[in-house]
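Thread: Newbie trying to understand structure tokens

Hi all, I'm a second-year student working on a class project, and my supervisor (Dr. K.) asked me to get a predicted structure for one chain before our next meeting. I've only ever worked with sequences, so writing a 3D structure as a token string is new to me. If someone could post the tokens and maybe explain what I'm looking at, I'd be very grateful. Here's the chain:
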Amino acid sequence: MQRRHLISAATLAPLALLLGGCATLSQLGVEVSSFGDWPAARDAGHRGSYAFERLPSQQQAPQAALQQQLETAAAAALARLGFTPVAAGGQPDLVVQLGARVSRTDRSPWDDPLWWHGGFGPWRVNPWRGPFWAPSPRFDNPRYDHEVALLIRERGTGKPLYEARASHEGWRSDVAGVLAPLFAAALMDFPATGPNPRTVRVPLTPG
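---
Reply by user tm_fold:
Sure, no problem. This is what the structure looks like when written as tokens:
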């Protein structure tokens, strides 16, 4: 009987690791910093109407197309918090300014102190022959750093009310696929701020 239980546990362990890995792959670990002093007078059910503000450099092609991607992703996160886009021809209560940065880092075998595990390295063929240098394939995936920033200001006074930044570093190269999760993470604790920075986890497809 005891042997049967041991076999069952050994069988279930890899399954638990697999399920845990799947959960991790469906989430994004994001570093978030937020600042501001959101007015308590604004009702949580309807925090006000807003319009996106574009800098002159963000209004020219091809930057305008990229800015539209940012606004689409941020609008979903703002809607979940009770913000509504201003009606056509109306005056918004708030203006929202967005920014993003994406950088790519290509790793070299020489970046790794144990670089000899790939590229060129010592390999022992048998106990009677010493190590020798020989080429071996090594593949290093590039790293991508994605960061978004959001600033909410009062339209009438121009006073900054809330600022948030969110960044993620990993192997994902699809900018469009991480924008919505990054803005969701940036506003996850709204209207609270700090501690800065902090790490949060969000689903890759925010609901």
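A couple of things are worth pointing out once you decode it. The helical segments are 2-25, 63-80, 175-186. Confidence is low (pLDDT under 50) at residues 1-23, 115-128, 130-134. Feel free to ask follow-ups in this thread.
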